[in-house]
């Protein structure tokens, strides 16, 4: 039976929690206005990352209903596996928003709920931590506002996963409670907070380790008398955390290894902060325009003058501040200041990346701690933007700001302190205000033709699909609309937009795409069918050059031998392709490479460069030196007749456009009479090489049994500008 005193305390705490959440909810509505009036039909910022994350949250909600079956194989970038790992999976927020999606079936509304929640979570979470460390409600409110509405959030208004850092202060609150009380329940709260944070943003999986490590080491040292129990409890917690993270880490690491998805050191350095970044503002920030310089990209990290001043007061006056009152304040004020100043400095220095610099190219060091961590921490090279470590800097500044305000309030009378709180709170809001929240209207069912096509596809047989026009990265809203609409029709699509690109999508959207050459449409369809693509959806109204769009659709429809049926829905046409069932020759027995010692080669063009196709160096190549005209050839004379099993033309990413448009492979046993072993577009083999090879995709041609003394490769197609080039030409025999 609980005591009346405990009941009253619990009631007060509940009322306080409700009041805090209501306060930060009201401020969030104010600071993000007019979003609240468009929750179901508009997204904050633009139709880039917000629309991608809208789709991911809806996908997560659907997979939760199916026990996470097929969770990683999200329906974009077909035919690649685990495509959800190309970005954040957001399961940490989806477990909270999925009921909203199930109830209302409105992905846009679900995203906006998560977006607003990120502000409330950050403010309320920081209030909880600061309340524990200072015992001062007004100081905690100020800290929560500084953390929830800092200018950094203006910079990342389109990055939901970055905004959801509110689990950090909640996790630290629970960790401090554990060390103060020894409560394993509090340690469990820390574990849940860290898991939800890491399941939301892979960056924070790494970044949150900084304050956690510093707090844990400091507290173990401070409570030396029970260090064995603390270390054991933390080890068990770490093991449980590893168990919770292992399936996710395995999926990401497997994809990164299979697809070579890593960030280079130069790219990481480019997206690092420098010292000057912390006095640069986002271009949208109102109050400091004309005073502080706007920073480029993600390098505008000014935290706000108000919280900086409060934090400075805390650091400067730490020796004169009294310890915070109450049993919920486990640390002395001086210790809090030292601890969180250390956390802030560590995060600040690491945010400078592998080459800490003052401003741009003015390097302070040629290498730094982040560089050293890159060498030893698995997966850290998958993070592109070290400057996002500023979120941990702001966490430390918010805590120090709470201490600084608490000190000021303690030196003033209550009325004056309350007035000061109002002024400080208003200053924080003004510094973090960007003006009315920009909104991008997104109503997916507005296009009646498109919706009719997707309704038909929803009832069609399963199979991969490509949507045309397949567009370059600059037209990402269209690609993301394609991606979003997979929620309606259920077919995986070749198209995609995420943190990484697939090699196939990159090729098909690039300047050498066969879909941009009408003469190659037939070969492209054969290549797509070989990858089990079953449907092509053409949106004529999305072609910037409608004449080319109509020509493309006409070229597709003329491929009657490859099309099972055509469905027309106004401006949208769906073509169902025939299954890939073309016969292929399989080399029997063991095939062995044919040594250079057993043949000599000649070419129609640039014979002096032909040796580069046989030098074993993929960086060199033979090329015609002119556009393909249909009269190019390479001839190989063997020292004795051979059964050539396979021919490989190795390409490279930089010269994929130089593939032969029409290739004929001919064999002669006497040098006079030739038989055709292969004839047609090599696009099926090229697309297979792009999908299955990390680098230097090959065109592998398996040949039927033959007796060859002379082998001739003839290029019979034409291009407007592309050469015919081969980086390596390799031969095998049966």
Which helices and strands appear, and what pairs or packs with what?
Blueprint: H1 4-31, E1 42-44, H2 49-65, H3 91-104, H4 107-134, H5 137-148, H6 152-155, H7 160-163, H8 167-181, H9 184-200, H10 202-207, H11 209-222, H12 227-259, H13 265-270, H14 305-316, H15 333-351, E2 357-359, E3 362-363, H16 369-376, H17 390-411, H18 414-431, E4 439-441, H19 448-458, E5 464-468, H20 476-484, H21 486-489, H22 503-509, H23 521-530, E6 533-539, H24 546-557, E7 563-569, E8 572-577, E9 592-593, E10 599-603, E11 622-623, E12 632-642, E13 644-650, E14 663-668, E15 675-680, H25 683-692, E16 698-702, E17 708-715, E18 725-726, E19 728-733
Parallel strand pairs: 5-6
Antiparallel strand pairs: 1-4, 2-3, 6-8, 7-8, 9-19, 10-12, 11-18, 12-17, 13-16, 13-19, 14-15, 14-17
Helix pairs in contact: 1-4, 2-3, 2-4, 2-20, 3-4, 3-9, 4-5, 4-8, 4-17, 5-17, 5-18, 8-9, 8-11, 9-12, 11-15, 14-17, 15-17, 17-18, 23-25
Report on this model:
- The protein is an alpha+beta fold and 734 residues long.
- The protein folds into 3 domains: 17-262 and 272-431, no CATH class; 448-577; 592-733, Galactose-binding domain-like (Jelly Rolls, Sandwich), CATH 2.60.120.260.
- Helices cover 46% and strands 13% of the residues.
- The protein has 25 helices and 19 strands.
- Strands 10-12-17-14-15 form a 5-stranded antiparallel beta sheet, with no helix packed on it. Strands 5-6-8-7 form a 4-stranded mixed beta sheet. Strands 9-19-13-16 form a 4-stranded antiparallel beta sheet.
- Helix 9 (184-200) packs parallel to helix 12.
- The longest helix is centred in the N-terminal third of the chain and has 33 residues, at 227-259.
- The protein is elongated and about 105 Å long.
